[in-house]
Amino acid sequence: MCCRPPLLSLSVYCLQLQNKLQEARGTLTAAVDPTTGKKLFHPETGRAPNFARGNAKAGGVGEYLYNLKQQQDDKARAVKEEQERKRVEDMQCDKQNASSKSMVRALQTKRFRQVRAAESCNALLHSLITPELPAKHGASVVCFWVVVSGSRAC
Fold first, then answer.
1. What DSSP letter does each residue of 2-66 carry, written as one string?
2. Residue 23 pLDDT greater than 70, yes or no
């Protein structure tokens, strides 16, 4: 155990803390920028900007920010219009390749032939049902019997 009186040890401890505080303050006051000679970590306040912000002719920061927002809005509007134009163009575009086109063409031809065959069949049946039509067109009664029997040699 220590033989020192408690009051003496407290005064020594207080002196040690004061010495540490002086050293810390010395390091903070010694922190100086070598190029400017000013203290480090002490900003200047209440001064004008070191550089011009925005366009000085446009009327200051407010005008600059307003014009910047207008430019951004114009750019966004142009992008949106381009996307809309592409969407409309894609909707109007014919997206068939060669094989799809040939398949569609073949189906159209087939349906056209079926329609024409149905029309000619209807016209022939109509001419067979009404007796005056074959006489007008030069058809004979033999044709009627051949069509009804199922052969097409008319």
1. --S-HHHHHHHHHHHHHHHHHHHHHHHHH-B-TTT-PBTT----S---SS--S-GGGTSHHHHHH
2. yes
